[in-house]
Design goal:
This protein has one domain: Cytidine Deaminase, domain 2, CATH 3.40.140. It is about 20% helix and about 20% strand. The protein is built from three helices and five strands.
Length: about 140
């Protein structure tokens, strides 16, 4: 993977990463102690945040990225401009899991920028969504 250098100047990455960090403060992660926050910029210009919500039954745990995505979709937003994810350790970011990558693939364009940054500080590493899941499952392309 190579980091994007042609990042859309209309995306305020500082604000988007700050929104993801604010969302991470609401993380319910008593088992992993691994808070994650996400901020998804909709085509409507609204940023919707999400945090990871763990459950004693690990299969019921919801990742921050899917919380932000499902919140957006439940409010009628189906197109997105950018995603910021923060989490992990103070120096290392949390990359999205496979389930989140597949859920995002349903709604995000391959060239949508995704910024991943450490939880506490640091600039995001920005990549196209297509680099996260190059061969996503889809029923839309069936003939």
């Amino acid at each position: 993977m190579t980091q994007r250098t042609d990042v859309n100047p209309k995306i305020d990455w500082d604000a988007l990463v700050s929104a993801a960090r604010a969302a991470a403060r609401f993380s319910h992660s008593p088992y992993s102690r691994y808070p994650v926050g996400a901020a998804l910029l909709g085509a409507d210009g609204v940023v919707r945040g999400g945090c990871n919500i763990e459950n004693a039954s690990y299969g019921l745990t919801m990742c921050a990225e899917r919380v932000a995505l499902f919140k957006s979709v439940s409010e009628g937003v189906r197109e997105f401009r950018a995603l910021a994810i923060v989490g992990g350790t103070p120096d290392s970011p949390a990359w999205p899991c496979g389930a989140c990558r597949q859920a995002l693939a349903e709604f995000c364009s391959p060239d949508m920028p995704v910024g991943v940054a450490p939880l506490r500080a640091g600039a995001p590493e920005i990549r196209d969504f297509s680099e996260f899941l190059p061969f996503s499952f889809s029923l839309r392309d069936r003939k």
